[in-house]
Amino acid sequence: MDSSIKLGHKLIDNYSAPYLIAEIGVNHEGSIDIAKKLIDLAKEGGADAAKFQTYKAGKLASRFSPSYWDLNKEQTKSQFELFSKYDSFGIKDYEILYEHCLKNEIDFLSTGFDKDSIDFLDPMMDFYKISSSDITNLPLLRHIASKNKNVVLSTGASTLDEIYFAIKVINEINTVDIALLHCILNYPTPNHDANLNMISEMRNRFKGHIIGYSDHTLPDKEMKVLSFAYLLGARIIEKHFTHDKQLPGNDHYHAMDVNDLKVFKERLRETSLILGDSRTKRPIISEDISRKNARRSLVLNKNLKKGSKIKYTDLDCKRPGHGISPVEIEKVIGLEIKNDLNEDQILDWEFLS
Fold it and tell me: Which CATH class, in words, describes the domain spanning 285-351?
């Protein structure tokens, strides 16, 4: 089944270049100027969307919520404490960032983690991105579904049943297109835990949905993990994005920067050239000479006099393919030759009657 989804300015299908989401999240650390700079860099690198995260710590996490990240990289042990550091933006700030995205011709996107955030973000967004952590958040899923916009749903740490559950909840309220992102909910994700083959499994299980990948591995010089994800069928790719990977804590250490994004875009360009633009197996223009010269024709294996009737034993199949194709051999048997022909003569219909 062919599937597609409209995301911002692009229609994505299974043959598209991937829709690239630069997940700025809260790497602006409360600075509008840095947030704007990150939008600029995301655009420069070739991203399709600049994505933020919208929440208030008190609505997101209990004061007693423990960490789930690598404490060697981010030493804050309380979710509430960590999220409180970066929840200062309000609606006016997001409106500023939305306008900045419009000016830069890049899609604005923010993951809202509560109903109030969803409501004030709604006029600014063409579709919703739902965090893996909310795949079982029934009230939030229903509230997002009520907006009647397409959805990109991350599936980190989820079972197949939980994915089916979220799809069912959304589509019971509005029938929208839902893309699913393979994700490993581990910060950072070691390469040996990336499990990109799950992309293939999801493509088989959820044939009516575009499948993508939300990445938390450490970027390498060749951006191989993202490139492999694309080759396995990921048509939406999301990765954390920063202006400085050396900054301590939070999401900087496993994020890509503008240079990583440019490297990935170049790998995509090269890969797309190799994959080609044809969806159907067929000869291409550069193969025309090969079809003529590397294929075979019916050829005489002896001299024959005018009026001779051709028998199987008179024929061989040799290159080039300019003459009568071997697939026509049954039509040739029993025909007479119009003139004397020599051994190795490539047969043509004009020689026969």
Answer: alpha beta
